[in-house]
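FAQ
Q: What does a multi-component entry look like?
A: The components come first, one per line:
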Amino acid sequence: MSKVQVALGIAVLLAGVILMTSVSNLYLIALAAGFLLFLFCMAMFIKPQFFVKFILKTTKNNVLLSFDDGPDPVNTPLVLDILKKHNAKAMFFLIGKKVKGNETLIERMHAEGHLLGSHSYSHDPMIGLWNRSRTTLDIGDGHGALQHVIPEAGNWYRPPFGVTNPNIAFALKKCGLQAVGWTVRSYDTVKKDPEKLLESLKRKIKGSDIVLLHDTQPHTVSILEPLILELKRRNLTSKAELN
Ligand SMILES: [Zn+2]
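Then the predicted structure of the entire assembly, as tokens:
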């Protein structure tokens, strides 16, 4: 029995008990709202792994730098140049609809030893509300686009916005994909000040962390070199390894 089924069972049981004991409707509504809020939180946060099991760490004394939302024809080559300069390896989660036209860039990522995973086809903000077949098609197409360029790419997937639900869990199983999460979220799509971004990452990062970054952001490119140097100073490696 899945965790969702258990949670639903408990909710139905509680509702039954409340009805039998004739507690006011208001209390019942509050309970239902609380349960829905709980499910929403479980869908939005990856750490509880409520709907989907995630890989949540890299190897000891290593920090996995992971980049979502590319490939980006302007910023991704700059990210690759910096990684190459410092012999650092990273992981890229590619959006399926961005693959066409960027095949050479993706081949470069692979040739230079970085890990590749998919990040859905559409990256649609409403993906968490889609039905099972539409969700499965989008996730399958996203990974298919990556494999069309790099057939030997792994079976890794990162959910857009970190959203999971039973339909996404079904799609991953159906497509044979393993979800990869993160332990440090940079918020680099909203934190546009490079200095503050770098400082907050320096504060948070430790060995075995997976860091969520975006290779679509110019300020992320600008802090990458000092970040890698800081990791080296702390004797932490930057290898493309999952644990
Ligand atoms: Zn994304």
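Q: Is there any commentary attached?
A: Sometimes. For this entry: The helical segments are 3-20, 25-44, 75-85, 103-111, 132-149, 166-175, 194-204, 218-233.
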